[in-house]
Amino acid sequence: MITMKNLKKDFDKGRVHAVADVSFEIADNEIFALLGPNGAGKTTTMRMLSTLLAPTAGEIEYDGMPAKGNEQAVKSRIGFLTNEIRLDGQFSPNQSAEYFGRLYGMEKEQIGKNRKELFDYFGITEFADRKYETFSTGMKQKASVAICMIHDPQVVIFDEPTNGLDVLTQRLIEDYILQLKEKGKCVIISTHLLDVVERLADRAGVIIDGKSVFCGTCGEMLEAEKAATLSDAFVSLYTKHHREEPAIAGKPAGRSGLFRGRKA
Amino acid sequence: MKEMSKACLIFRTEAGHFFRNRKQVLSTFLLGPAIVLLMLCLIRGAVSDPPRLALYGAGEYRAALEESGALPEYAVFREDGADAGAEIASGRNIAAVRVEEDTVRVLYDSSLLTDTGLLSAARDCACRIAALRVSAEDYAAFAAAAAPPALIDLSDADDVIRVGLIPFVSMLFVIVLMFTNLNTGSLATEAVAGERERGTFDMLRLSGTKVSTILAGKLLFLFPVTAGMLLLDSAALILGMRLSRQGLYAFAASAAAENPLWFIPVAVCVLGIAALSSALYLALSSCFAKVRQAAAYSGAVMLALSLFSYAPNLLGSEALNYLPVSNLWAVLGNALTGRSALVYALCSTLIALAAGAVALTAASKYLERDAAK
């Protein structure tokens, strides 16, 4: 069980509020989707969850254990894939798996077992000794997922894992996420693809302007917003909760989703 | 997994990664020596017979001055200056200095020499150089009025070796500043800013590896590579000096050959320089999350250090005198020790190690804070 209470994150000495007030509870054996427009604070929330960022205020607990002060213990339980990760083109999947596996303190046998399982699933076994620079975008993403999962973490955080991928690769990763849930893992994904949310997520949390404004199943979201589609429900939530803001840096007012964070 | 093991793992991975890229290995280790040799060849054409450091020439002018008892306190003439008097008159390849309490005053300076010989003399006496260009007539007037000199015979082997070795050791700094810093800066930029830009630095941190451990691992890789580069550059330098047979260079090489332990201060310097360069550029790279920014600032720092290291020469002599190398560490080392090349090298190295350690510790703390804020 992951609990986030009133998370807040400011950047630039408090001048930019990336996350203003986010609270969610995420159960084990659950796929939880984080939804929100660009710049709403999803990635910042995920980075705080993974302990890569320290919250300005608020608490994060993993099974009752506060993340603050237990960063090492939390990190060992987390697999975090951001859409920014670009593995070094000079490395091969085998080298990366060995490297990160060892850094996680895994034994060689365990690394080999996990590697085989993951590489076989993602179809990269035959390319495992090739450099990433020779890989296609989809192959790189599959390899990235495999490397992030090499230590078999209990909590998996994927930031837009299927962005820019072809349908087949997208489906492969979605199926993998479903398998993780079957294995009892807690999966948190952030995506703009609402059909992905409908297919995968048990529950979704919506963040708008750095605040959590909804948490529940897709059905509950449709019902609450009296909408026919998830897209309509999301737009309805956005319209209801989005705060009009003065223009920043010459951009029109009320389009905070275009910016990373909001000026104080 | 203990932090030390993790640092070793990062080191092994970085090293393996580096040595698998043949082009990078070749350019790192061979480009420097090739350019050093090329530089020495070009210098050979640019400098016409730079004078060697000696107390007096052996010509009639010296004899005449000795007879008159009007020699300056110290002077630097061509060792082979049989016609030194004529050369003074014609204003070519000759220099005269007077050592005052804390200053070496250049009384007559008519050559490209101005000058490693003079700088070495200044270092040897632990004093500053004040440039004062005077005409041949003024010099003659001075020589006529000056008190009899206290002779120092620089043909004495120990003195020659000492004076020759210091510029020889100092020459390494050219290599550091021009080639090693470029390569080290490039590798350090890739090692930290590159990882941050690619997002793999976060992956390292998520594996529970401390930032200081990551930097230590990178330093373990960068340090021997930098030291290796320097050693190869030094070898090229020695070879180049032997081949060039030009005034100062041949002199320094022969001085080194006469002193079988010449490599000790050189090695000490190499280790200090390698440690400082590695730590400094890693620290600099840690301040940026973009490779382009880190590379730009590394380049700017390299240029600033180069200019700063030339400052004593530029201030103490003519701008044309770009060949002799003085530098921050030489100045500091000399200020503290004055004389022995080894003590000077040790002192410089300790300063370098301390500076490197401070830079890396600060970078580690900055990265921890920057990542978490």
Characterise this structure.
The complex is a heterodimer of chains A (264) and B (373). Chain A has 264 residues and is an alpha/beta fold. Chain A has a domain at 2-77 and 155-162 and 186-263: Rossmann fold. Chain A has nine helices and eleven strands. Chain A has helices spanning 42-49, 71-76, 93-103, 108-122, 137-148, 167-182, 194-200, 218-225, 230-241, and strands at residues 2-11, 16-26, 31-35, 57-62, 65-66, 78-81, 155-159, 186-190, 203-208, 211-216, 262-263. Chain A has a six-stranded mixed sheet with strand order 6-7-8-3-9-10, sandwiched between helices. A five-stranded antiparallel sheet of chain A has the order 5-4-1-2-11, covered by helices on one side. In chain A, a hairpin with a 2-residue loop joins strand 4 and strand 5 (65-66). In chain A, helix 3 runs parallel beside helix 5 and helix 8 (218-225) crosses helix 9. Chain A is globular, with a radius of gyration of 19 Å. The two termini of chain A are 33 Å apart. Mean pLDDT of chain A is 85; it is low at 246-264. Chain B is mainly alpha-helical and 373 residues long. Chain B folds into two domains: 3-48 and 158-372, no CATH class; 60-153, no CATH class. Chain B is built from 14 helices and three strands. Chain B has helices at 3-20, 22-46, 60-68, 84-90, 116-124, 136-145, 157-198, 200-206, 211-244, 247-258, 263-286, 291-316, 328-337, 341-372, and strands at 95-99, 103-109, 128-131. In chain B, strands 1-2-3 form a three-stranded mixed sheet, covered by helices on one side. In chain B, helix 11 packs across helix 12. The longest helix of chain B is centred in the middle third of the chain and has 42 residues, at 157-198. The relative contact order of chain B is 0.14. The A-B interface holds A 11, 50, 52-54, 72, 75-76, 78, 80, 82, 84-88, 90-91, 95, 99-100, 102-105, 147-148, 151 and B 1, 6, 9-10, 13, 16-17, 20-21, 194, 198-200, 202-209, 371-373.
CATH class of the domain at 2-77 and 155-162 and 186-263 in chain A: Alpha Beta
Q: Work out the oligomeric state of the chains in this entry.
A: heterodimer
Computed Rg of chain A: 19 Å
How many alpha or pi helices of chain B? Answer: 14
Which stretches of chain A are poorly predicted, pLDDT < 50 over at least 5 residues?
A: 246-264
Rg measurement of chain B, Å: 24 Å
Give me the CATH fold name of the domain at 2-77 and 155-162 and 186-263 in chain A: Rossmann fold
